[in-house]
Amino acid sequence: MTPESILPLELRGVCLSIGNAALIRDVSFTLQTGPKTVILGPNGAGKSLLLRLCHGLLTPSAGTVHWHGAGKTGAARHQAMVFQRPVMLRRSVEANIAYALALHDTAKPARGGLIAEALAMTGLAAIADRPARVLSAGEQQKLALARAWVLRPQALFLDEPTASLDPAATHAVEEIIKTIHTGGCKIVMTTHDLGQAKRLADEVLFFHQGRLIEQTHADSFFEKPDTAHAQAFLRGELLWQDDEPGLR
Q: What is the phi/psi pair of residue 167, to 5°?
């Protein structure tokens, strides 16, 4: 039986502070089923923190993070996150994927077929018996995606998934992301690579100094962003101060 959709995801008035530092400031938006969402912004804009808030790894200091289609427990079961430097267990590629299924309480008779599908989809079948910790960075990121995808999440958060990869590995990971999205999974990812954002994004959330500055269709953002902050970012200018003169 197909589970009820956990989407849309709605953030309302979300803030995150540590001590006296306001890191995420009064953020509100809704993520719908469908478009690949790419979160952009300069270093320190709060992109990774935002993903952790959405995924539930962090609790907001104020505001709400609400999955409309399910309660908190149900939503947690139907979403996943892949980090820039994923943790590899001290076991084989195949066993890493099997461990994810075991944690998810997937029925044992179903696990073999699901593992085989994940290995094939990510191009890892030929190295299924290899220890995960000796894989290249690109292979480890493929494995991280396989571990996430094998659970069939409805939403997948990706934090700079190709930041340390060469062009060939980046291309392979991008193709896997497209395949996951084509299968009906909501993709929400951060990237520092504008070229990658142009290749993958259907919609863009642009952040600066912990604030959501723009949420718009990707074509509109890259062709004619609405705000001076976004225009400066796309020109390659450094945005290092809050509320710079001329960028309000």
A: -60, -40
